[in-house]
Design a protein that fits this description.
Elements lengths: L1 E9 L16 H13 L6 E2 L8 E11 L5 H12 L4 E9 L11 E10 L12 E3 L5 H8 L4 E4 L14 E4 L1 E7 L2 E8 L6 H13 L7 H8 L14 E7 L1
Parallel strand pairs: 3-11, 5-6
Antiparallel strand pairs: 1-3, 1-4, 2-3, 5-10, 5-11, 7-8, 9-10
Helix pairs in contact: 1-2, 3-4
Subunit structure: Homodimer.
Catalytic activity: uridine(38/39/40) in tRNA = pseudouridine(38/39/40) in tRNA
Function: Formation of pseudouridine at positions 38, 39 and 40 in the anticodon stem and loop of transfer RNAs.
């Protein structure tokens, strides 16, 4: 068997997320069907992260096995051809060791969350960022973000449907940068809880709107209660950037 590691980008707007689900179109299904069409083999694609419906990816990583060798550049061309017309594409493919696993071999995962912060919406960024019309206090958001760095119990920021065995996670990066009318939040960790990034963003936006004081983020973290945190930020602003190995 030959194990292939692929890197994928996609717009999640019209998709049901990464994972294959009955009755809806997912990134996993699109790619598995594309691979079958040119290889004749039924494969199972394993991704480095399960993005939700509406979430995008710049560098999602996945692996699959084929019984016969195919040149990586030919796999890229074939997958992209058969994945049309969906907004899903492979931009890198390489052979990987048989013990490589896109999910379990990953040592870190990186996300970006985009906010368009101006009085009027952006047509170009429709479904690709969270539009917030009222001015956000970015320095206050940056101060609040510092409370979340490091190893904590992130129960307050996990979805009620989260299946992770432990709420303990280590947030290694949470930077907030404003560039003109756009605010980007950069987050990284070895792994994340379900909705963790979007719930953190939703809470930090309350600080940015001066609805919450900076120190309230610490109180929310210590509460270990999802009801204490802010709303879940829209999926449209979230991008899976890459996984490190």
């Amino acid at each position: 068997m030959y194990r292939y590691k692929i890197t994928i980008e996609y717009l999640g707007t019209d998709l049901a997320g990464w994972q294959r689900q009955a009755g809806v179109m997912s990134v996993q299904q699109i790619l598995e069907e594309a691979i079958y069409k040119f290889s004749g083999e039924q494969v199972i694609l394993f991704g480095s992260g399960r993005t939700d419906a509406g979430v995008h990816a710049i560098g999602q990583v996945a692996h699959f096995d084929l019984s016969k060798y195919l040149e990586p550049h030919k796999i890229i061309t074939a997958v992209n051809y058969f994945a049309r017309p969906y907004a899903v594409g492979v931009w890198n493919c390489e052979l990987a060791p048989n013990n490589f696993h896109a999910r379990f071999s990953a040592t870190s995962r990186y996300y970006i969350y985009r906010i368009i912060n101006r009085p009027y919406p952006s047509v170009i960024d429709l479904n690709r960022a969270w539009w917030i019309s009222s001015p956000l206090d970015v320095p206050a958001m940056q101060q609040a973000a510092a409370y979340l760095l490091g190893k904590h119990d992130f129960t307050s920021f996990r979805a009620s449907s989260c299946q992770s065995k432990s709420p303990i996670k280590t947030l290694t990066e949470l930077n907030i940068i404003k560039e003109d009318e756009e605010i980007k939040l950069y987050l990284s960790a070895p792994s994340f809880l379900h909705h963790m990034v979007r719930n953190i963003v939703g809470s930090l936006v309350l600080v940015g709107k001066n609805i919450w004081q900076v120190e309230q983020i610490k109180d929310v973290l210590e509460a270990k209660d999802r009801k204490a945190a802010g709303p879940t930020a829209p999926a449209s602003g979230l991008y899976f950037v890459k996984a490190a190995y």
